[in-house]
Design a protein that fits this description.
Structural class: mainly alpha
Number of helices: 11
Strand content: under 5%
Largest sheet: 3 strands, mixed
Oligomer: single chain
Radius of gyration: 21 Å
Number of domains: 1
Shape: globular
Number of strands: 3
CATH superfamily: Rhodopsin 7-helix transmembrane proteins
CATH architecture: Up-down Bundle
């Protein structure tokens, strides 16, 4: 087990002269993620008309995106601003655990959301029979429970490893692969667990998502109205873009041997699911949705009325 004072997160050490601009960019990104996802939460929670399975899934997704960003970006901002790059051993393990938990939960949630859209589009008359609020809550609780259990083995095994070569993590947060690269212990068990859990969790969720969208698209093709097909395809394309980015980066980064770790390439891919996806999700799943827009306008009007009242 590692007995040192902690690790040193290198971050974007190869761009030392750009630390302040990078700090400003990430600060703005963090505010956008918080504001965008918080707006979705406020809109849905404040409008009883939106208390349906689809929007309950969106509440969970927005919560995941806020937690995703808050688990990594504040620490990165502190590093960029102060150049104090140390993180405690326990802090590193906790950050890694939360990251894996959120990743696993979002994978399963995307699959549940794809199935929900399949039922809504392909079986609209039976939607509230096939997808009840209870069913929605069960799927969310199941995804969260599996997500909480998934990182336990990783955290336990990595916390017992020896890290004798270096304390410098060549990444911008505590991820599994960079930690394994620093260990002088046998990492085969952790890699095996990653492949097993990836096969048992990632691929079934991916297949459910893929199959749901194939059936959705085949159903859309039967729509006679060209305008109707165009609108439906526009929505599906947006959803598939987000799903493809998320699954693509996860598969490229974690379903491979630790020896193939390439810091600069992995940082780029990590930025996609840590930064880009939490920004895109509110736009793709919610802000393009007329019901969400209407709910936000109602809140805006209420706020304006209260502001005028107190003047």
């Amino acid at each position: 087990m590692y007995n040192g004072t902690g690790f040193i997160i290198e971050g974007f050490n190869d761009t030392k002269e750009l630390q302040l601009p990078i700090f400003i960019i990430f600060l703005l990104i963090y505010f956008i993620i918080l504001f965008g996802n918080a707006a979705i939460l406020i809109a849905i929670l404040g409008d009883s008309n939106l208390h349906t399975p689809m929007y309950i899934f969106l509440i969970k997704l927005s919560f995941i995106d806020i937690t995703y960003a808050s688990n990594i970006i504040p620490k990165l901002l502190h590093i960029l601003l102060t150049q104090h790059k140390t993180i405690s051993f326990s802090g590193c393990i906790i950050q890694m655990y939360i990251f894996i938990y959120l990743t696993c939960t979002e994978l399963l949630l995307l699959g549940a959301m794809a199935y929900d859209r399949y039922v809504a589009i392909c079986h609209p008359l039976h939607y509230y029979i096939l997808m009840t609020i209870r069913d929605c809550c069960v799927l969310i609780i199941t995804a969260s429970s599996i997500g909480l259990l998934d990182p336990v083995a990783h955290a336990m095994l990595i916390s017992r490893m020896n890290f004798c070569a270096s304390r410098h993590i060549d990444h911008f947060f505590c991820d599994v692969t960079p930690l394994l690269k620093l260990s002088c212990s046998d990492t085969s068990k952790v890699e095996m667990i990653t492949y097993i859990f990836g096969t048992l969790i990632l691929f079934p969720a991916f297949l459910l998502t893929l199959l749901s969208y194939i059936l959705i698209i085949s159903n859309i093709l039967k729509v006679k109205s060209a305008e109707g097909r165009r609108k439906a395809f526009s929505t599906c394309t947006s959803h598939l873009t987000s799903v493809t980015m998320f699954y693509g980066t996860i598969i490229c980064l974690y379903m491979r041997p630790t020896a193939s770790y390439a810091p600069s390439q992995d940082k780029f891919f990590a930025l996609i699911y840590v930064v880009m996806i939490p920004i895109l999700n509110p736009i793709i799943y919610s802000l393009k949705n007329q019901d969400i827009k209407s709910a936000l306008k109602k809140h805006k009007n209420k706020f304006s009325f209260k502001k005028q009242y107190w003047k």
